[in-house]
Amino acid sequence: MKKVIIISTSLRTGSNSDMLANQFIEGAKAAGHEVEKISLAEKDIKFCKGCLACQKLGKCVIKDDANDIMQKVLNADVVCWATPIYYYEMSGQMKTLIDRMNALYSLDYKFRDVYMLTTAAEDEPEVPKRAEAGLTGWIDCYPKSHLAGTLFCGGVDAPRTIEGNQKLQEAYELGKSV
């Protein structure tokens, strides 16, 4: 059994990326894993100040929700990020959280497998590539981990337009394969 953390970064109720995350969760649970979903919708996450105190303290000096999330990521075997694509890139709130998890760099992290689920109004295959590159930039700082899988669903814009899409089943299967 693995400990799986899913970070849903969309702030929109009924978001398509969150629906992909929910299917990934169901698949991981069906495989017998311990699963926790973290939604950024109600979280207070401030911008990194670049003070680098986290490298000495093992946590950020800013008092908000980022340290609690970071602790969960630190102790997870698997991390799955779910994000809408805005202007061909990950959501700003996802990038802000990634920046704030800088303290992980000097800690003994457990995660090895990292997944990324993305959705966008545009549906060309190259749409998620910049977001994936941004996430792999973070992963590259943790040499024991790797990008284990990605799933992109394009052509979905308004809330819940992903309903009935085959990509939901693919997200379930990806979660089950963890």
From TrEMBL:
<dbReference type="GO" id="GO:0016491">
    <property type="term" value="F:oxidoreductase activity"/>
</dbReference>
<feature type="domain" description="NADPH-dependent FMN reductase-like">
    <location>
        <begin position="3"/>
        <end position="106"/>
    </location>
</feature>
<keyword id="KW-0288">FMN</keyword>
<protein>
    <submittedName>
        <fullName>NADPH-dependent FMN reductase</fullName>
    </submittedName>
</protein>
<dbReference type="Pfam" id="PF03358">
    <property type="entry name" value="FMN_red"/>
</dbReference>
<dbReference type="InterPro" id="IPR051796">
    <property type="entry name" value="ISF_SsuE-like"/>
</dbReference>
<dbReference type="InterPro" id="IPR029039">
    <property type="entry name" value="Flavoprotein-like_sf"/>
</dbReference>
<keyword id="KW-0285">Flavoprotein</keyword>
<dbReference type="InterPro" id="IPR005025">
    <property type="entry name" value="FMN_Rdtase-like_dom"/>
</dbReference>
